[in-house]
UniProtKB/TrEMBL annotation:
It holds the Pfam family Glyco_hydro_2_C. Keywords: Hydrolase. Coiled coil: none annotated. It comes from Flaviramulus aquimarinus. This is Glycoside hydrolase family 2 TIM barrel-domain containing protein. Signal peptide: none annotated. The keyword Hydrolase applies. Residues 69-237 form the Glycoside hydrolase family 2 catalytic domain. One of its GO terms (molecular function) is hydrolase activity. The keyword Hydrolase applies.
Length: 438
């Protein structure tokens, strides 16, 4: 028995020693790598970020899922953006291995979620907590930019938030003179450009986040009278607050092919075209999350499959399409009607739906259908939402590009989803809201 105990202890010691050796070696490898120095210069081509003396136009995306960072590099991106420092070191380490630079987000209290910028003690405590995270991460070689807060102007009235942002920026620059600071605004207008210019002058530049209005970004920049350098730190699919709704209030989501077309046109017409001021961008979202639907903003599906928007960003970043592309949707109807028609069904009755899709590579297509309850969330600004219930038992076992289904037995608002998949981990998607009556 003593011999067995000794064996177990020896094995445990060996395991812990090995783990310590690996972690220590990795830590030394990171610490011995040159700290990235980032700065902004005005060149003949406009404002540019320079990383270790080399111009660096940001081709990136926002990421919340560490497992997707590898695909970001594979598709030709050179940077990623986070919203907090929670998994900061893990994101930075992985980015370093893949040759990516990081705009690390610093989460700052939101007035709409109850943070009071008149509470001086709470503001001081927040600053000290952020200081600890800056000290922990500031020397990492993958770090490029500190993003202080996210859309602090969204549903916010207290201008003291910008005093706090300036204090955070000054603290960062004191501890870390090698990296840039910015804050990301929801939209851009003269009111906030002037307010931040007066209250947060320590920031190195401004960042903006727009969805449908990205189409008129050049006009908005002109109207704001902002002459300095910019990043677009969120942009992508048209938001659920910007689209038409059914008479019962369900927003009408574009299908994945319409979204992909918008990603490409918005990148070319509103980001790359503004290269005198815009120094690059982070597309939203390189991953998946629930916001009104599980498919609204994510460029990935819940099962990890890529959507057509990933294809588009691959093309935007590389100038060529990926070797295998995602199926493309052309039309989607329920009883011959589309989402705009305020479709109402009778509980328990049978109905038909049809989708038209093709594959650029002529791959075999698989059709998967689903019905979910309509989200009742009223949250905004990307705050966490619950995932609505999926209603099972409504479809036949085998489905194709057309199918029949039973309307749910309980009255209320629902969505019919279609997912069109190939054998290469790609998915096209669309949905139609409908209302079930007795």
């Amino acid at each position: 028995m003593k011999y067995l105990i000794y064996q177990k202890r020896s094995f445990l010691f060996f395991f812990l020693f090995t783990l310590f050796y690996i972690c220590n070696a990795q830590s030394k490898k990171i610490s011995n790598t040159k700290i990235t120095n980032s700065e902004i210069r005005l060149t003949s081509e406009g404002y540019r970020i320079f990383v270790n003396e080399e111009p660096f136009y940001i081709k990136g995306a926002g990421a919340i899922d560490k497992s997707k960072i590898g695909t970001l590099a594979k598709h030709g991106a050179n940077a990623l953006r986070t919203w907090s420092t929670y998994y900061g070191m893990e994101f930075l380490d992985q980015a370093q291995e893949l040759g990516l630079k990081v705009m690390i987000g610093i989460w700052v209290g939101l007035e709409r979620n109850g943070f009071d910028y008149n509470d001086e003690e709470a503001v001081r405590e927040q600053l000290e907590n952020i200081r600890k995270r800056v000290i922990e991460l500031k020397n990492h070689p993958a770090l490029m930019i500190w993003g202080i807060g996210n859309e602090l102007n969204h549903h916010s009235e207290n201008p003291k938030v910008w005093d706090a942002v300036n204090d955070i920026s000054e603290m960062i620059h004191e501890l870390d003179p090698h990296h840039l600071t910015t804050t990301s605004l929801a939209g851009i207008n003269k009111k906030y450009v002037d307010l931040i210019g007066n209250r947060a002058p320590d920031l190195d530049f401004l960042s903006v986040q727009l969805y449908a209005p990205i189409d008129i970004l050049p006009e908005l920049i002109t109207k704001s009278n902002y002459k300095g350098p910019l990043l677009v730190t969120e942009w992508g699919a048209t938001g659920y607050w910007e689209v038409d709704k059914t008479e019962w209030g369900a927003p009408l989501e574009n299908n994945s092919s319409v979204k992909a077309d918008l990603y490409l046109s918005r990148y070319q017409n509103s980001i790359v075209s503004q290269s005198q001021q815009v120094m690059g961008s982070f597309a939203f979202l390189w991953g998946q999350k629930q916001e009104r639907t599980p498919t609204w903003f994510g460029m990935y599906m819940p099962d990890g499959n890529e959507t057509e928007s990933v294809d588009v960003m691959h093309y935007a970043w590389n100038g060529e399409w990926p070797k295998n592309r995602t199926p493309r949707l052309h039309d989607f109807t329920l009883e011959g009607q589309r989402a705009i028609n305020n479709i109402k069904l009778k509980a328990g009755d049978t109905y038909n739906a049809q989708v038209e899709a093709t594959d650029p590579d002529n791959d075999k297509l698989i059709f998967r259908w689903e019905i979910m309850r309509e989200s009742e969330s009223q949250k905004t600004g990307g705050d966490a939402e619950y995932i609505p219930e999926t209603i099972s038992g409504l479809f036949p076992e085998q489905t194709d590009s057309s199918t029949s289904f039973l309307a749910p037995s309980k009255p209320g608002a629902y969505r019919l989803f279609i997912y069109v998949e190939d054998d290469y981990l790609h998915t096209a998607h669309a949905n139609i809201p409908f209302y079930v009556e007795d």
